[in-house]
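It is worth pausing here to work through a concrete case rather than discussing structure prediction in the abstract. The textbook approach is simple: state the sequence, then state the predicted structure, then interpret. We follow exactly that order.
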Amino acid sequence: MMLLAFCTCLLWLSTIGLWTVQAKLPNATVSTSSLPRGLAPTNVDFAFSLYQHLVALAPDRNIFISPVSISMALAMLSLGTSGHTKTQLLQGLGFNLTEMSENEIHQGFQYLHCLLEGSDTSLEMTMGSALFLDRSLELQELFSADVKRYYESEALAIDFQDWARASRQINEYIKNKTQGKIGDVFSDLDSPAILTMVDYIFFKGTWAHFFDPKRTREMNFYVNETMTVKVPMMFQSSSIQYLHDSVLPCQLVQLYYVGNGTVFFVLPDQGKMDTVINALSRDTIQRWSSSLTRRQVELRIPKVSIASTHDLGGVLTDMGIADLFTEHADLSGITQGAPLEGPKVVHKAVLQLDEKGQKPAPPRKVAPKQDMEPPTIHFNRPFLIMIFDDYTWSSLVLGKVMNPT
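Step two, the predicted structure:
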C-alpha cells in the first residue's frame, strides 16, 4: 500500500513538473531544488524560530516538536482565513507573498506531504492534523474540500458544550489515527474552544547500525546540579560522524536511520545550552554537516520514549501571528453564519529511541599505539536532538531533553 501511494505521488509530481533529483542533507551543499520556490528553507527558518521561542518560554522542560508538521497544520488552517488574518498567518510562517502565491504554498505542502508519507517505509512516522468544531456551526464546503485535497485532513463536528465527552472523542480520534501510539491529548480539565486544531506526530526510526541491546545499562542522567535520575543507556563503539565544535560550546554526532532520516545529537558544554540553542540556524546545520569527520567514538545515548504537548497559541502570538488567536480573527472561510472566536492549536509529539537497527556497527579497528584514544561522548546530561528528512530538508523533530524520565 505504501509503495502504491508513493508511485501515485511520483506520477502526480511528474504531471505538474515538480519532481527533481535531490541531494542529501549530509553533503556539504544542501539542495532544496526539489521543493517549489524556497519552501524548504522557509520551513526550516520557521522551525528554528518556533523552537527557540518555545525553549525560552519553558527553559526547564523537555521540548519536542515536529516543525514541518506544525507548518503544514497552520498552512491548512489558513485556507479558512481571510484578509489580514490570512496575510499575517502566512507571513508568520515565513512566506513572502509577493514571491510565492497562496496557491503555490498549498501545492508545495501537498507535494511535501506526499513525499513524506510515501518515500520511506523504514520510518515509523505517523503525522497529521485535524480540526474539530462545535456542531452548532455549519462548515464551508470549499474549506472542507481544500483541506482534504491539499492536506489529506478533515474537519469534524462535535459537541463542545459537553467538554468531557468532546475531549474523549478527540483523544480517541488521534489514538485511532496513530494506531494507539498517541493518546490523551486533552483532559477534562483543559479549557475547550469551539474550533480546535490538533496536530500530531509519532516518530520511531530504525538505525542504519543498531545499538547492541546486551550493552544497554542503567546509568545516571544529571538533570541539573541537584537532581539525578536513572535511565537505560544504549552503547555503541563505532566509526561515526563526530565534531567537537570550535565555534559553539558543544560536541555532536550524526547518525543515520535506514532510508531518509538524519539525526544530530548535540551535547552542549555544561551551562551552555542556551548559547547553542540561540545559534541554531540553517547556516549552523550546514557548517556542522560540512565539518563533521568520521572517527571511532564511544557513544552512549538514553533509551527513551518522550511525549510533549504544546498549546501553541501563546508562542505563535509572540512570533507575530496574533490576530488568529483573538476575537478579531477572520475565519469566515471555515464556517457559514456565526463568526468564530480564535482557535486553539495543540501539537503533540512522541519520540521513541531504542536499539533497533538494520545491521551491526562496523567493528572497531585496532589503532596504532601513537593514535589518541577515541573520544567518549556520553549523553548523560541535557542535550538536543534534531531529525531531518534528507530528501526534502524537512525538520521532522527538534527536541531538547532536560529529563529523559
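Step three, interpretation. The longest helix spans residues 39-57. The first strand starts at residue 63 and ends at 65.
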